[in-house]
Design brief:
43% of the residues lie in helices and 20% in strands. With 282 residues, it is α/β, with parallel strands linked by helices. The chain folds into 2 domains: 65 residues; 198 residues, 3-Layer(aba) Sandwich (Rossmann fold), CATH 3.40.50.150.
Length: 282
């Protein structure tokens, strides 16, 4: 099987699961992973035969994709803000919307030195990306999942950045009380009510960590409220709080921030014109 045939084979096999754009992306990622050839080289060398090992690896990937496993977990990597992150089922797959949150913080910090805490850091994509673009920032990330912290530490090492990564359950006041004061706190916390599972795709429900996705139906703003309250004590003077939010959750989050005395609250839309980010000042 040559490269062109392999591309057609993958797209045909997965046609019932993905649309044409997704098929092109997934096929490109799989073939680049198993051949180490970028797309332009594969196009120019489309008659090149896959080795027996490469063909076997492709079929292993295909079997997992047919079981609805996200391609990022299959390949154990995700691209985010110009970097490559190792990902497995201990962490959420980084999303493009979070890149916009990173960009907002970088614009505001303007290559100056600030201390930043990412709560629920997961793969570490937020603090690692921030540090890679502004080395003056002092970055920290915490998570309740030891598996996620292991992934984040691996990503910090691979991307050669210094980020303090540690375990902390921010809903436990005895633990959060020991946190130092930061200039910035950022979080993309769980915000999908449990009842939202019904509308989610199988590849998300089956593989991505529910602990990082879902909140109790009776308190969907639990983590926003907890972090906003934490920020009253753990943000310095004029400290800023940044949240990624559900597009239907802006009113609830803004109400929480106002109740906690935050000012200069700003809601920002993503590239699809959906309200997905909030910044507030202590």
């Amino acid at each position: 099987m040559n490269l062109q045939e392999a591309n057609i084979f993958l797209k045909t096999a997965l046609a019932d699961l993905y649309d044409s754009r997704e098929l092109t992306t997934i096929s490109d990622w799989v073939l680049e992973k198993i051949t180490s050839l970028p797309r332009i080289d594969r196009l120019m060398q489309r008659d090149q035969q896959l080795s027996e090992i490469q063909e076997r690896r492709m079929k292993v990937c295909l079997d997992q994709l047919l079981a609805n496993k996200p391609v990022q977990y299959v390949l154990e990597e995700a691209h985010f803000y110009g970097l490559i992150f190792y990902v497995d089922e201990n962490v959420l797959i980084p999303r493009p919307e979070t890149e916009e949150l990173v960009e907002w913080i970088l614009q505001d910090t303007n290559n100056q030195a600030y201390s930043v805490l990412d709560i629920g850091t997961g793969s570490g994509c937020i603090p690692i990306s921030l540090k890679s673009k502004n080395n003056k920032l002092i970055l920290a990330g915490c998570d309740i999942s030891k598996g996620a912290l292991s992934v984040a530490r691996r990503n910090a090492d691979v991307n050669r950045v210094d980020v303090d990564l540690f375990y902390c359950d921010i809903t436990d006041q005895n633990q959060s009380a020991n946190l130092p004061v930061y200039d910035i706190i950022v979080s993309n916390p769980p915000y999908i009510p449990e009842e939202g599972k019904k509308a989610m795709s199988p590849n998300v429900l089956r593989y991505e960590p529910h602990q990082a996705l879902f909140t109790p139906d009776n308190d969907p703003y639990l983590f926003y409220r907890t972090i906003a309250m934490l920020g009253r004590n753990k943000l310095g003077k004029k400290g800023k709080l940044y949240f990624e939010i559900h597009e239907e959750g802006s009113v609830g989050v803004i109400n929480i921030l106002e109740e906690q005395g935050y000012t200069n609250i700003r809601l920002r839309n993503d590239l699809f014109n959906r309200p997905r980010m909030i910044r507030a000042e202590k």
